[in-house]
Amino acid sequence: MVQYTLYLLSTSQPDSQPVSYNLNISENEENNPESIFNSKLREKMRSQLQQQTACAINNANLEKIIKTWLEDIREGYRTTSITLDLTALEFEEIHQIQDSGDRRIPDLFPPDFSQIEPQGGALPPLDFT
């Protein structure tokens, strides 16, 4: 068994460190790495990387990660580093918020102009001499 390591860095997180994901591959799997990445492993990778980075990894990002890692495995690289701009988990599902807001029109009241006076005069003094 040979250990392959993926390092993922998210540029959206300030001062973030790369997180790693390890995979032990046999010689037969090294020659055919596509057989390793089934749907179960993909979801396991997604959940573990999301937990470590606190960022959401959508399907497109996951495919990019796996595609890059597959290329490196085929070429014989034991470590792969990927840098992506991932959104934070708390902002990923913001469009699904079900809040209609307060749609009541506030009570209207007339303004009170009794205390309003010009301070120092609004016009310059008129001198007709």
Name the shape in a single word. elongated
SS-derived structural category: alpha+beta
Low-confidence stretches: none
The pLDDT mean sits at: 85
Helix share, percent: 25-40%
Strand content: 15-25%
Series of H and E elements: EEHHHEH
> What does the radius of gyration come to?
30 Å
> Count of DSSP helices?
4
How would you sum up the major sheet?
3 strands, mixed
Distance between the termini: 106 Å
What would you call the quaternary organization? single chain
Tell me how many strands there are. 3
The largest beta-sheet arranges its strands as 2-1-3
Pick out its properties.
alpha+beta; 3-stranded mixed sheet; single chain; 129 residues; 4 helices
Q: What this model shows, in words?
A:
With 129 residues, the chain is of the alpha+beta class. The protein is built from 4 helices and 3 strands, in the order ββαααβα. Strands 2-1-3 form a 3-stranded mixed β-sheet. The protein starts with a strand and ends in a 37-residue tail after the last helix. The mean pLDDT is 85.
Q: How is the secondary structure organized here?
A:
Layout: E1 2-10, E2 19-25, H1 27-31, H2 39-53, H3 59-75, E3 79-84, H4 89-92
Parallel strand pairs: 1-3
Antiparallel strand pairs: 1-2
